Amino acid sequence: MKKYRESKNFSLDDVVTLTGVSKPSLSNIERAATSPSINILWKISKGLGLPIAYFFEEKEAVYELVDINDLNMIDTDNNLIKAFSAFTWNPSNNFEIFYVELIPGAERLSDAHIDGSVEIIIPLKGELLFQINDEEIKISPQKLFKFNSDIAHKYMNQGAETCELILVMMYPFKE
């Protein structure tokens, strides 16, 4: 984050204004004194106009084959929800892919993402109850769901089994 902030000539105060994250928290993140939760990362990514995976960037490979069981979990601040970044993010792709598990009873309210962003949900197992605006939509395997994610939305698992899904985040093209 510090590398990006300095490349844009932003002060920490500028980033506080853009993201709504406190200056002490941002300073701790930059110094690697703390690991931010997924909620804080979403605020930072939205405020700076970056995909969340920007903060996990690694050297790009010709191809990647990942085993879901080997993915590193992202802290969601909710022990009923597990989220994993599936592939190394490349700035030229303008998308990122996550594997997500929602334990029965799990609920996650997601703030609006970057303006112009789109999300695709591909359910693998279980039934996801999804809320956008005041509408609730049931999404089950064999169904694909796409929506504009630049508004707040909510994921819920009201079923008896764990809901597993692939989540694709697509960001607007930026030059």
UniProtKB/TrEMBL annotation:
GO terms for molecular function: DNA binding; DNA-binding transcription factor activity. Residues 1-55 form the HTH cro/C1-type domain. GO terms for cellular component: cytosol. It comes from the Bacteria. InterPro entries: Cro/C1-type_HTH, Cupin_2, Lambda_DNA-bd_dom_sf, RmlC-like_jellyroll, RmlC_Cupin_sf, TransReg_Diox_bact_type. Keywords: DNA-binding, Transcription, Transcription regulation. PANTHER family: HTH-TYPE TRANSCRIPTIONAL REGULATOR, HTH-TYPE TRANSCRIPTIONAL REGULATOR SUTR. This is XRE family transcriptional regulator.
